[in-house]
Amino acid sequence: MMSASQSDWLDIGPTAQIDPGMAATLPVEGGEEIAVFHTIGGEFYALINKCPHKQGPLSQGIVHGDSVSCPLHNWKISLKSGKALGDDEGCTPTIPLKVDAGRLYLLREAVVPQVGPAA
Question: Cβ(75)–Cβ(51) under 8 Å?
Fold first, then answer.
């Protein structure tokens, strides 16, 4: 993975805003809503807020270790990889996230819609 400069990261707020075992959502204008998860173990993960099965809101699911259960049909999704676990198949895109000095940062290029060159 290439190292990104500080300006490549988008500050989305303090780690304290998300209680352990919970998630918060981040709307993205022109893009997919992002769910940021805080595990009981203190890790943070960011995924597109849609189950690959029926697009259920993963942020409303139950966090178990480093996975979340979709609230619609109980599919378990890995918070690390976005992949469905067990016999289920599918993948939810993950968003690079880092924690620095008690703040949460998402990789800007993964969050901000890219504008192509003018035609």
Answer: yes
Query: What pLDDT does residue 23 have?
Result: 97
Which residues lie closer than 8 Å to 15 by C-beta, 6 or more apart?
A: 38, 44, 99, 102, 103, 104
Q: Within 10 Å of residue 102's Cβ, how many Cβ atoms?
A: 9
Size of the chain in residues: 119
Beta-carbon contacts of 59 under 8 Å, excluding residues fewer than 6 positions away, are 23, 24, 25, 35, 37, 49
Phi, psi angle pair for 60, to nearest 5°: -95, 0
**pTM value > 0.85:** yes
Q: Does domain 20-111 have CATH number 2.102.10.10?
A: yes
Helix, strand and coil content of the chain, in percent to the nearest 5, comes to 10, 35, 50
- Whole-number pLDDT of residue 1: 43
Between CA 114 and CA 93, with CA 53 as vertex, the angle to 5 degrees is 30
**Domain map (residue ranges) of the chain:** 20-111
Q: Which 8-state DSSP code applies to residue 51?
A: -
